[in-house]
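Ligand: glutathione. Inputs:
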Amino acid sequence: MAPYTLTYFAVKGRCGALKMMLADYGQQLKENLVTFEQWGKGDIKASCVFGQLPKFEDGDLVLYQSNAMLRHLGRKHGAYGKNDCEASLIDMMNDSVEDLRLKYIKMIYQEYETGKEAFIKDLANQLKPFETILAKNKSGFLVGDQISFADYNLFDLLLNFKVLSSTCLDSFPALKSFVDKTAARPKIKALLECDDFKKMPINGNGKQ
Ligand SMILES: N[C@@H](CCC(=O)N[C@@H](CS)C(=O)NCC(=O)O)C(=O)O
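Predicted complex:
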């Protein structure tokens, strides 16, 4: 039996990083896919604590909030730093990835037609701090010398950005190397190449 269950829409959306993390740790994931039609009926929404998906189950533990899920898995699978200071830095990195993800989501869902070009133009400014951090850390990870949940989250978002603008990492060697190295991790590579994952849209409105 899969130890973990994810209930979510049939999109990568807020769960790409979680899936990559679990794949990298060799963990099974049972997926309950909810259609937009089922969601529209309201019963599932009413059953969710904050009225939204994803929902993640680890045995009796039920979690909402995708970043809480990443933190939970980080704690369980050794991807939350080697000490409290590293953990705090990883939190800081992940919060910054979340800030950027929110900007991306706003553009995708609210202003794709009018805001996409401006978003791409500003992307270099948004990516620069991550480039600086990765260039400084010889391990090639955001914090310390091992991969953390914030790395998976950044990697997932950068893959979305590359779909949005294939050249967006061209002037960021550290980010490019981070993406290449993470994508080459054997179990992540296998996930990225698997048909079910590949064919899943990034976003619920089909824009990317
Ligand atoms: N902060 C939440 C956001 C969750 C969220 O925005 N869920 C969206 C799909 S990605 C949703 O459930 N939308 C349907 C609705 O709000 O009715 C998280 O990170 O999990």
